[in-house]
Amino acid sequence: MIKLEHISKTFRVGKNKIEALKDVSLEVNKGEIFGVIGFSGAGKSTLIRCINLLERPTNGKVFVEDRNVLTLNKKDLRKLRRKIGMIFQGYNLLETATVYENIATPLRLEGVPKDEIKQRAEKYLDIVGLTDRRNAFPSQLSGGQKQRVAIARALAHEPEILLSDEATSALDPNTTDAILELLLRVNKELGITIFLITHELNVIQRICDRVAVMENGKVVEQGSVVDVFTRPQQAMTKRFISNEAKFAIPAQLRGELLKTGKLVKLTFLGESSKDPVLATLAKQFDVLPSIIAGGIDQLKDQSVGNLLVHIKGDQSKVETAVKFLHEQDVLVEEVNA
Ligand SMILES: Nc1ncnc2c1ncn2[C@@H]1O[C@H](COP(=O)(O)OP(=O)(O)OP(=O)(O)O)[C@@H](O)[C@H]1O
């Protein structure tokens, strides 16, 4: 649906060159929610703006539904942009217009017939749950409500793709959750492909199917959310994942535990979380597993369980037990001193 091939973007500021994007390639499938995560300055905004050509890449190709958008004339580009809605962190609403007019005015400018404007504005106000605030002005709304208006405004153009530029970054956690729920519905019920950028891990975990991790203008890792977040390959990705912090145990305790056995971090995905692996360890290998820490993360459609386990016993028995764990349907990471 969206394909970026070897995109680079260099900004010139006076004599300086800033390479905001360096050879970025990625593909977003129709119907999925694809997220790009990275810290500030990684190049996320520049990347998302290259899709609808708010920013023109210095090099590379941008395909939307197999059309290279860089070769489109002005008229075709306008047409293409109608297929691509966009929402922003700052909402970009017309402050002097009511909620209804914020949705209706752009449709009027686009030449949509009067009856249809009314029908679409009402339909999308209902979908975002703001029918009763149609006559309010943006200054009378909360941040979450403003973002709902912005979403309704984008949807009213009946796009196939929705680009989301840090749409929840200015919102508190509860409001963020509600907006993420709404984006999930928009994706599922209206079949709209969503490409979003964020610096919040929670956003990726809650709603994305696939993710790309960006650092210094490059995509350093990409794949399904489950794969990337349960088997992160790059230090950058690991920094985003708080498991390590969750399982940070005092150095002294870790030292003591390592004297009497091994410490392993186990990650259980979906069905594997139902297997009684720890009971099996104790029974079959004559070792004593004890849980030091644990938790469950909910990814979009899957729960991921994490346990930090101490396995106590004879060295050779412990090693056989760990080998057995590696053969099971769990991810095993040994924790060393
Ligand atoms: N119009 C511009 N002119 C010059 N430099 C720019 C421009 N836009 C972005 N940059 C630079 O490109 C780099 C990437 O910026 P970008 O905004 O894409 O990153 P980001 O990951 O979205 O970060 P943030 O969340 O802070 O916006 C930064 O070094 C930034 O200063």
Main beta-sheet strand count, sense and barrel state:
6 strands, mixed
**Number of DSSP helical runs:** 13
Sequence of secondary-structure elements: EEEHEEHEHHHEHEHEEHHHHEHEEHE
- Look at the structure and name the CATH superfamily of the largest domain: P-loop containing nucleotide triphosphate hydrolases
Query: What's the number of structural domains?
Result: 2
Q: Low-confidence runs (pLDDT<50, min 5 residues)? A: none
* Strands, count: 14
- Determine the strand fraction and express it as a percent band: 25-35%
- Terminal Cα span: 47 Å
The ligands found in this model are: adenosine-5'-triphosphate
Mean pLDDT, all residues: 91
What spatial form do the alpha-carbon principal axes imply?
elongated
CATH architecture of the largest domain: 3-Layer(aba) Sandwich
Q: Supply the CATH class of the largest domain.
A: Alpha Beta
What is the CA-atom radius of gyration, in angstroms? 24 Å
How helix-rich are the residues, as a percent range? 25-40%
What CATH calls the topology of the largest domain is: Rossmann fold
Strand order of the largest sheet: 6-7-8-3-9-10
How does this structure look, described?
With 337 residues, the chain is an alpha/beta fold. It has two domains: 2-240, Rossmann fold (3-Layer(aba) Sandwich); 243-335, Alpha-Beta Plaits, CATH 3.30.70.260. The chain is 38% helix and 31% strand. The strands form three sheets. A six-stranded mixed sheet has the order 6-7-8-3-9-10, sandwiched between helices. The protein has a four-stranded antiparallel sheet with strand order 2-1-4-5, covered by helices on one side. Strands 12-13-11-14 form a four-stranded antiparallel sheet, with helices on both faces. The chain binds adenosine-5'-triphosphate. The site of adenosine-5'-triphosphate (ATP) has 12 residues, from β1, β2 and α1.
